[in-house]
């Protein structure tokens, strides 16, 4: 017998369990590094502070964004070292910041296009991720091209083709998730409807607040009906020539008319593609930038080669003609039967075809000489000299980079 047994102390039959390793793995990084908890929560606190500042100072934030963006328009060119890269870096940062601020300040009523986008973003996580990635690439693509160009032309064209492929995949996924509907151009949205700054009450509204006329109470510029409690917006004062507060009576009444797009559900704002020409048109329109970028990559040695330009232009014209045939066949009333969102998208795609005059061989053989001639005529004149310098600076971007003239 051992000494412990003689003293009456029981001996355990098995060794005590070793401390589990999971307890250390669940320990927070802050505790393992012996950092104060306040340091770990600083980023969240800063973000909350910034969000509160933007929401309470929306008009000042919008004015600052506009001022900085106007300043970047005067920077592109080659007069100083790395001026295009600096300007584009600032422009990219402002675009991303504006998109985030617009997301914070977004409030109804939304434009029909933004209502359609918000519906599918809320319904499908894939659609939301693809739309966010597409917007991010659109804001940063020129900056990425400038950075890639420093590594050489081969690296630059690889980045261009890769970005066009990613954008095409995102659009194909968005079209698939939405039920074979045309992909509407994504962007920041209509800031006039999504970023409403609370205007401070005027002196007249302050004196009139609480005034009662014919049983209706006027509060903060609105008329509150005593029996129903309904609030009616204040009508602007009219002048003898029929202008009220800077807009005509017709414009004032038209802006308050409820349109069909405002009544429709968000799903019905864009129709499904029901015919083969419609599907071919959308597929060709989405893949056109990829085919054009690959053709330019193969012909980069000769910038005046017409083959890439003819390929891209023919694909876009064919897609537009097939889309018109699809609308005429499947929509009652033709183009008139389309919703406002679809008409705006068709109009945007039509105007986008004008950018073919600033691309590839057409620009090198035709447009470049016209732009340089106009910029040369403006030089040396009192007021137009600054315009000529800006045109010449943008001519540098159009000639040296791919994405300034990209429409997708």
From TrEMBL:
GO cellular component, one term: peroxisomal membrane
Annotated localization: Peroxisome membrane
One Pfam short name: Pex16
Keywords associated with the record: Peroxisome, Peroxisome biogenesis
A biological process from GO: peroxisome organization
Region spans: Disordered: 1-26, 185-214
Biased amino acid composition, Basic and acidic residues: 189-208
Family annotation (InterPro entries): Pex16
Family recorded in the similarity comment: Belongs to the peroxin-16 family.
Protein known as: Peroxisomal membrane protein PEX16
Species, as recorded: Alectoria fallacina
Organism taxonomic ancestry: Eukaryota, Fungi, Dikarya, Ascomycota, Pezizomycotina
Gene (name only): PEX16
């Amino acid at each position: 017998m051992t000494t412990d047994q003689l003293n009456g102390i029981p001996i355990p039959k098995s060794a005590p369990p070793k401390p589990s390793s999971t307890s250390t793995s669940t320990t927070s990084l802050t505790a393992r590094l012996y950092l104060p908890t306040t340091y770990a929560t600083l980023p969240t606190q800063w973000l909350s502070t910034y969000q509160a500042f933007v929401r309470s100072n929306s008009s000042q934030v919008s004015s600052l964004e506009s001022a900085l963006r106007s300043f970047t328009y005067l920077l592109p060119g080659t007069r100083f070292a790395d001026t295009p890269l600096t300007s584009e870096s600032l422009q990219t940062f402002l675009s991303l910041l504006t998109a985030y601020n617009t997301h914070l300040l977004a409030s109804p009523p939304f434009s029909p296009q933004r209502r359609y986008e918000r519906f599918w973003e809320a319904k499908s996580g894939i659609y939301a991720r693809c739309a966010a990635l597409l917007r991010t690439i659109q804001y940063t693509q020129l900056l990425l091209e400038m950075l890639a160009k420093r590594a050489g032309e081969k690296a630059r064209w690889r980045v261009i083709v890769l970005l066009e492929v990613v954008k095409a995949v995102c659009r194909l996924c968005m079209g698939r998730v939405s039920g074979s509907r045309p992909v509407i151009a994504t962007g920041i949205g209509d800031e006039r409807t999504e970023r409403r700054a609370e205007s401070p009450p005027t002196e007249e509204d302050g004196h009139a607040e609480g005034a009662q006329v014919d049983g209706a109470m006027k509060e903060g510029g609105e008329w509150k009906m005593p029996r129903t409690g309904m609030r009616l917006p204040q009508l602007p004062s009219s002048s003898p020539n029929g202008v009220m507060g800077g807009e005509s009576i017709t414009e004032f009444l038209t802006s308050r008319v409820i349109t069909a797009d405002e009544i429709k559900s968000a799903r019905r704002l864009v129709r499904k593609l029901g015919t083969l020409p419609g599907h071919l048109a959308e597929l060709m329109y989405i893949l056109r930038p990829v085919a054009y970028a690959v053709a330019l990559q193969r012909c980069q040695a000769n910038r005046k080669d017409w083959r890439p330009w003819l390929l891209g232009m023919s694909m876009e014209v064919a897609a537009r003609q097939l889309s018109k045939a699809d609308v005429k066949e499947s929509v009652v009333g033709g183009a008139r039967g389309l919703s406002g969102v679809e008409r705006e998208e068709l109009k945007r795609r039509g105007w986008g075809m004008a950018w073919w005059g600033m691309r590839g061989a057409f620009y090198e053989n035709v447009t470049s000489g016209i732009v340089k001639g106009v910029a040369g005529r403006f030089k040396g004149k009192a007021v137009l000299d600054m315009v000529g310098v800006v045109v010449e600076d943008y001519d540098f971007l159009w000639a040296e980079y791919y994405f300034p003239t990209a429409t997708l």
